[in-house]
Amino acid sequence: MSWQQRIDAALDERRAQHALRTRRAVDQGAGRWLTLGEQHFCNFSSNDYLGLSQHPAVIRAWQQGAERYGVGSGGSGHVSGYTTAHQALESELAEWLGYDRALLFISGFAANQAVITALTGGDDRIVADKLSHASLLEAATLSLAQLRRFVHNDVGHLASLLAKPCAGQQLVVSEGVFSMDGDSAPLKELAGAARQAQAWLMVDDAHGVGVVGEQGRGSCYAQGIRPELLVVTFGKGVGVSGAAVLCSHSVADYFLQFARHLIYSTAMPPAQATALSAALQVIRGEEGDRRRAHLRALIARFRQGATGLAMTVTDSASAIQPLIVGENARALQLAERLRQQGCWVTAIRPPTVPPGTARLRLTLTAAHECEDIDRLLEALHGGE
User: Among 86, 192, 202, 277, which has the highest number of CB atoms less than 10 A from its own CB?
Assistant: First the structure.
């Protein structure tokens, strides 16, 4: 089979399964409203949970940063791309989240890949939640370490896997809030199991930081733990993009020597770092508290109104409110019907989620109003 035949066969298979991914170029897609040409939709697919991507102070900080530093960093942080703006943001993150150090990465995917690749070797074992993000599982699969996956949020199964002999070290991997189901990990229990086995715990809290816990410090802080490795990303609750790894002094120094995703990537623009610092100021202050309280009220309103839907509503208290549909074709049909009623909703299908669990992945944000939730619920109930 030639290269082209292989490509065509793979695409044909995806089409037959109603699983072909497509993109649409929108005019605006992060805020309360998504615009596509002359059409306007109430947006229920954005991960901008606190609505900070549109915040005037964050936008103004990026503009001021661009005026001061320019629009790019000019190189890797190991060469010339590490500025006082990056340094200030790293210090603020470390202080806020209670760690010695923070290291900035261009994306959460890169941060997860860098940590697992740099840290683990051939004698080591990675024990990851079965529903961990693709970036975590791909990094573990491609690493030299042995990968074992424990049943989702099953601490007993994790402990049994950790109890098996291992020639090297063991790394437990989980998310704080899971991106597709919206549920939270029992992090305190996971930390206990890891500690009992003398393993390290790595938590990707992409969907928790900014939203969960006091001052939005995230899932780990809310559950009273401090894992050896904490990954936070800035494209969700923080409203911008990029990521950081929180760790000890020595581990940070180690990554500066051996994390290839950090060493050989152009650093994020300094203007972006200034925008992120501005976003953190909002998140940590009274306005952040108000936005989180408003989001919680919207989540409660949606869940109360979703009672009686034929679709399965997952046990999620987060901004991620998936409705499990089952078949790929039906999920696509429902998403399109909701768009016809002015609600932008994305159908998520395998391989992103397990077979037979295609869903409408609804995300609520602090930019929404109560009337938006009511509109969505009316469309959902009317479409059954």
Answer: 202
